Fold:
Amino acid sequence: METLSAGMRDLEAFQRPPDGRQSGSSCEQDREDALLQEALQQARSGDSNGAIRWLALQMRGRGHSMQDIGRASRELMRRLDPDHKPGPVPERVPAHLEAIKTLFTGRLRWCPERRTWLRWSGTRWQAETVERVEAEVHEALRQEYAGRYTHPASEEDRKRALARLNELEADRYWDKALELFKGQDGVPTRASELDADPWLLNTPTGVLDLRTGELREQQPEDLLSRITAAEYDPQA
Structure:
């Protein structure tokens, strides 16, 4: 493992444009350097997954673009993963992340205060254990890559699918991708965002808008986690 100072020198080079000029203000550069340094320290203390997630969430909260976050996260992962070999086609962690986004965007959310996953049941967001979500994501990825291997668009796609399946079998890379997924748009959800509208009553029959008396289907964007035991009966 590189020393911290050597790692930070490389990260500073990564953040500067090719002509050597500083990008943005020196103050903003200092803030980015501080975030990357703290992420490296967390990773080197033994919590690499947490460091990746922390970096993504911190940069997102400071208004960085997803492109900047992805680039910084990949650089951090490259230093943490000695087997990583960069190439023209994104592989390993980014490849697993794209598959997870395709399969689970709108179906899973992450509540950092509670350190728990939220799963959309079709009627509400329900808390789910980390272990069960990890098992579900692992199985969904296995089925996804198996399908790509069986019905590839090209021989190169077949090889990529086989590589992803082998990584799942070895229990590598996909877990880091799942950590990164926690920081993607529409996934991080504060506890205060859940059930925030007091005028929406969630029932097994649907969502009742108490302002208008309208009953409609549940929608994930309502961020409702509670539901009544009894169905709504307009005639009652």
User: Anything to note?
Assistant: Residues 1-23 have pLDDT under 50 and may be disordered. DSSP finds eight helices and six strands in the chain. The longest strand covers residues 116-120.
